[in-house]
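Write out this protein's structure.
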Amino acid sequence: MWDKSWQYLHKMGTVILFASIIIWALGHFPQKVHYSTPYNMAIALVAEDTTLTDDQKAVSIEQLEYEKESEHLEKSYIGQLGHFIEPVIRPLGFDWKIGVCLLTGLAAKEVVVSTMGVLYQAGDSDDDTAALQTKLQQQTYKSGPHKGEKVFNPLVAFSMMIFVLIYMPCIAAITAIKKEGGRKWAILTGCYT
């Protein structure tokens, strides 16, 4: 049992770490993005507004920074990839962010949740799990026929969980199948599913 645990931590842990770094880089670049709103100017105006209290300024600035980061993520390389595959997954009720999560899950299924945390910007509080849960509940479609509707209704959430469980095994699982059963079984499992 110790040998198998060490094998997972040693080999698969590197796959998960590598995938997480790639996801971060794809979401962080390109640095220069043309924003639809001049956020820096809007933040400066709010900071200089004397009619607002300090608490109101903090809330307004936080909201503007969140919107700026959301637009940056959408226009980043990972956002472009998500928008590219969105027409294929739209019939399932999935948006581009869910599509990116599913793609990154091919590296390791565990990465689906960490990708959601990055894309839904849930890592900005002390309790990241509660923050992600809240962000998922607040997500709405920004465009298309469902504009303004919640992305994660019970049916979409359930179908996403089932989809993650039954779509192609992750690279980590295929690697384990290859080690235990041989290359033919690994190829069969990857292609068949």
